[in-house]
């Protein structure tokens, strides 16, 4: 069902702003004339099919016209964004920019922090989000519909949970890409032709991982089943575990969470 809200995306020319804007139009969450995209150039690629979409270079004008303002810019760029959003719903995709800072900088009490990832481009992002108390049931329903248009989503009950998920979810394809890179390097070192090695690795990381989809087997159950089978997979898994695979993953997630906390402290400092 299409929302009657006017939604403005600041940073609408970036990959994430474009992906989520297009997803809302494709799934009928918004009518094209109800979407405003801002970019420094005043142009946004990928919206030729929706000529009614509004484009602007003026973030203040966008904030005046939109009832929902989406902040899809890098955290370090937020200092250059000047808007007045009192009484409006503000949805931020910025890692490490706290609710407190968003309230102070936008003038709105209706704040949602969310963490989509790169998979929004293929409508497969998992997006956790956190809302302040003044956010209404209608605001929540719109937010849920927006993120369901580009994947799956959950509202979390604390900002601390959102900060942790910034490191876990916001990294998107980076963690599987690291696994794929390591597997590919090993296969090439064993002398496999690159084309064969790349197809094999993609088949494992992209194809076989679909078994862990929404209705798939729980990860721990799959690992245990493979270990119990006592074949080549079990040998490989056990060697990875013994070499500290789980410890390395935990260290990476802890480091990402710590970085999110440092960013949050940094961006909470007053300008100047």
Short description:
The protein has 272 residues and is an alpha/beta fold. It has helices at residues 15-26, 59-65, 99-106, 137-148, 159-168, 174-189, 194-207, 219-229, 232-242, 245-267; strands at 7-10, 35-38, 54-56, 68-71, 89-92, 111-114, 125-131, 151-155.
Kindly describe this structure.
This protein is α/β, with parallel strands linked by helices and 272 residues long. Helix content is 46%, strand content 13%. It has 10 helices and 8 strands. An 8-stranded mixed β-sheet has the order 3-2-1-4-5-6-7-8, sandwiched between helices. Helix 3 links the parallel strand 5 and strand 6. The protein is elongated. The mean pLDDT is 91.
What is the arithmetic mean of pLDDT? 91
Number of helical stretches of at least 4 residues: 10
The count of DSSP E runs of length 2 or more, i.e. the number of strands, is: 8
Strand order of the largest sheet: 3-2-1-4-5-6-7-8
Strand content: 5-15%
**Uncertain spans, ≥5 residues at pLDDT below 50?**
none
Largest sheet report: 8 strands, mixed
Helix and strand pattern: EHEEHEEHEEHEHHHHHH
The oligomerization state is: single chain
Give the termini separation. 45 Å
């Amino acid at each position: 069902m299409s929302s009657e809200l006017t939604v403005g995306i600041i940073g609408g020319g970036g990959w994430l702003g474009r992906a989520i804007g297009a997803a809302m139009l494709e799934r009928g969450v918004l009518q094209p004339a109800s979407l405003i995209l801002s970019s420094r150039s005043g142009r946004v690629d990928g919206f030729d099919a929706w000529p009614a979409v509004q484009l602007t270079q003026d973030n203040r004008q966008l904030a005046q016209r939109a009832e929902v303002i989406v902040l899809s810019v890098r955290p370090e760029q937020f200092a250059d964004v000047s808007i007045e959003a009192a009484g409006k719903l503000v949805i931020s995709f910025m890692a490490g920019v706290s609710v407190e800072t968003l309230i102070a900088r936008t003038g709105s009490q209706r704040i949602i922090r969310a963490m989509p990832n790169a998979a929004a481009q293929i409508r497969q992002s998992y997006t956790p989000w956190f809302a302040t108390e003044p956010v209404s049931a209608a605001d929540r329903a719109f937010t849920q519909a927006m993120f369901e248009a580009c994947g799956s989503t959950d509202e979390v009950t604390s900002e601390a949970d959102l900060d942790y998920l910034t490191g876990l979810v916001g990294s998107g394809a980076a963690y599987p890409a690291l696994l794929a890179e390591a597997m590919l390097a090993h296969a090439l070192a064993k002398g496999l032709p690159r084309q064969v090695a790349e197809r094999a690795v993609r088949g494992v990381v992209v194809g076989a991982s679909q078994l862990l989809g929404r209705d798939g087997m729980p990860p721990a159950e799959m690992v245990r089943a493979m270990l119990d089978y006592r074949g080549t997979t079990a040998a490989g898994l056990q060697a990875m575990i013994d070499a500290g695979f789980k410890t390395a993953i935990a260290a990476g997630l802890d480091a990402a969470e710590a970085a999110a906390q440092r960013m949050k402290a940094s961006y909470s400092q007053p300008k100047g």
